[in-house]
Amino acid sequence: MTRTIGLDGQWTLYYFPQGDHQISDPEHLKTLSLQSVAGKVPGNVELDLVEAGLLPDPYVGENIYELRQYETYEWWYERELQVDEPIGSRRVELVFHGVDCMATYWLDNERIGQSDNMLIEHRFDVSGRIKQGQKHKLTVRIQSAVIEAMSKRYDPSSRAMQTNYEQLWIRKAPHMYGWDIMPRAVSAGIWRSVEIAVHEANEICDLFFSTMEANTRQAVVQLFYQLHAEPRRLQNLQLKLTAVCGSSRFEQTYPLHFTYGHLRFAIPHPVLWWPRGYGDAAMYEITTELLSGDEVLDARVDSIGIRTVELIRTDISTIEHPGQFMFKVNGVPILIKGSNWVPLDMFHSKDAGRVAEAIALAVDLNCNMLRCWGGSVYEDHDFFELCDRNGILVWQDFAMACAMYPQDPAFQETLRKEAESVVRKLRNHPSLAIWCGDNECDDSYVYMGLDPNDNVLTRKVLPRVLFQHDPYRPYVPSSPYISPEAYRLKNEDAYPERHLWGARDYFKSGFYSMAKSHFAGEMGYHGCTNLSSILRYIDEDHVWPWKDNEQWVTHATAPVRGPDSAYRYRVQLMADQINELFGEYPERIEDFIIASQISQAEAKKYFIERVRMRKWHTTGVLWWNLIDGWPQFSDAIVDYYYSKKLAYHYIKRSQQPVCIMVDEPDSWHVRVKIGNDSNQAAKGTFRVWDADSNETLLQGPFAIEANGIGELGAIRAPRSQQRLILIRWEIDGTEYGNHYLQGTPGFSYEQYKAWLEKIAQLPLSFQADQVGV
Fold first, then answer.
1. Cα dihedral sign for 291, 296, 297, 302?
2. 203-304, which class in CATH?
3. Which residues belong to any copy of the Glycoside hydrolase family 2 immunoglobulin-like beta-sandwich domain (predicted)?
């Protein structure tokens, strides 16, 4: 078994403007009088400067712009290390799980390698160089990503957003150059752990489990294995598998003829892994032992989920050719209800400390899918393990977003290596449902009048990697994917999966209500942050008013100062969405916050329930988004400080496995519908009533089949009538609740605040007087 020795902790960090000194090796550092601070690993250089008192808090006010001066610096990390454990002649590697980004590495002043990708791990063979009990020096130089980007050649066929052209060649998280949801924080650092790996002569190198068949009678699992073994051992090698999940147990020993191969084994009456709401996310613990006769040479334990995942999709969806975009798990159609997963922090060394609490929010909301957006990093095993055990499917974009990336053979090779590393790392996780080539890059091609199907990266490079390393998992080239036929039609309505943003006007406008796509990969609406959070990141003299407020613009989010920022409109948009619903712009910040959160909450509730009530024409929505990665005014329903907006509570009700909902008026009536997104039939009783008069509008028993959609009745409802309808139902002694806002804007803000008290008292209650606080 590979032993690891951690090298995290405090290093020394030297820094200076790149080009001020020409340093050829670490020994040269000693001859210069350079600034240095304590460098934390894992860490980011800006956080070290803040800790040293050299930078103000970048999360507050307009301090984020102070980071730009360091974009053209270089950074040198150094530390001593000593290994006191026996090493002998074993193979030894230095493993850097995340270095941002253009790095060169030295051990005892001898260069051992370099890297140019923050998104993957880097390994360097140092066998024979590290001696037991001897002190060694490890040095890492990180050069400016911006300067490196300046050295590249750019072509008319490459494109990025206004402030993001550096992202085209440099393999960093795209959002780091600035986005509408994240500030410009280009950063540098050793952002994930560093360790020494000491290998054994006989070792299990790689195992890959694939579920080929899964039903209640039998599961067939294929195992790919690769081993290291001494040649003298080859005649007697065996692989012993022991798989246990509750009372289900499988054990078998297989003779091996080589150090690489495939095995297939069948587990009778398996316990299957299901997405949240459809059953338990059952995990088998599989112990794999490498044997030579009766001697155990190596062993490892993996957790796997036995399930199949299919994506049933068409290239277009039109009246003549009705389309589809449906996930099936274990042969069962799954209605997807979940969120886009965006950066947890602008400084990714802080991600690991935030992931568990963020996943707990998704679990509480009953999300059954998270989409790892292509503008971020690839999450580590801790994220996927939490999704595995909580039944959350993961849609994984490759790290490309909103751009047309180089088609150059050198960049193709860079992306191929990146994809290979990421795919091999993550492919055993049962939560990983789909690979996607990028975020909105197909859209970028169409915007420029070019055919996205000429993009060799997502049409050739990535599919080849996946065929080689993960051939049984679904893949889609982009989100949204614009197929050759869809491109020919020049009609967004023909895309089976879309990102539904539009003008972002009234959330029940025709853009949303008449959208013909089957699956919404993105769909969001603004909601103002709670006052207690605003007071933490906006300076006191800039808290109010919202209009012409540069700190609000900065946190809306503007990557650059001044009138040229492409995202200045977002504060005004938030205010306009309030005015759209209530016919006014509030004059007090407290009212602005509450009105904005009501607008957001009603919008996202509508988006989710619209999908549920049109099941199976629509098959999923991934709303934007769960939690902020820095303090801002945004579409997130939980802010950076984990403070929940009103939308959180509305979504929690709308995403219950069994939910009673009210559709939009038609023919003088609204229809009351019930959706069951589970594998169990349900029955109970329900009541629908007017919130003001307490008049019962509809009531009675109900029964709904597993994974079904049904109608409970109709209520007379002219479009001109504004009222709040409350809903309560009971299943097996447990009560549930929901509401429906009937009518068209503008609604009375004061009336809605009174209604909010009644909405809050429904099952899954919350404190109405804490909304916006």
1. positive
2. mainly beta
3. 260-307
CATH superfamily of the 3-198 domain? Galactose-binding domain-like (2.60.120.260)
pLDDT digits 0-9 by tens, 140-155 = 999 999 999 999 999 9
Tokens, residue 194: 């560093």
Q: Indicate the pairing of strand 325-329 with strand 332-334.
A: antiparallel
Are residues 725 and 697 in contact, defined by beta-carbon separation less than 8 angstroms?
A: yes
CATH architecture for segment(s) 520-655:
Alpha-Beta Barrel (3.20)
Q: Residue 584: CA atoms inside 13 Å, Cβ hemisphere, count?
A: 12
pLDDT in tens, 522-556: 999 999 999 999 999 999 999 999 999 999 999 99
pTM: 0.97
- What are 276's two structure tokens? 């949240």
Pairing of strands 432-436, 475-476: parallel
Cβ(387)–Cβ(429) under 8 Å? yes
For the domain made up of 656-742, the CATH class stated in words is mainly beta
Quote the pLDDT of residue 566.
Answer: 82
Q: List b or e across 496-526, with b for residues whose CB sees 16 or more CB atoms inside 10 angstroms.
A: bbbbbeeebebbbeeebeebbbbbbbbbbbb
Residue 625: exposure state from Cβ atoms within 10 A (0-12, 13-18, ≥19):
buried
Residues of the chain under the 50 pLDDT cut: none
Contact call for residues 124 and 112 (beta carbons, < 8 A): yes
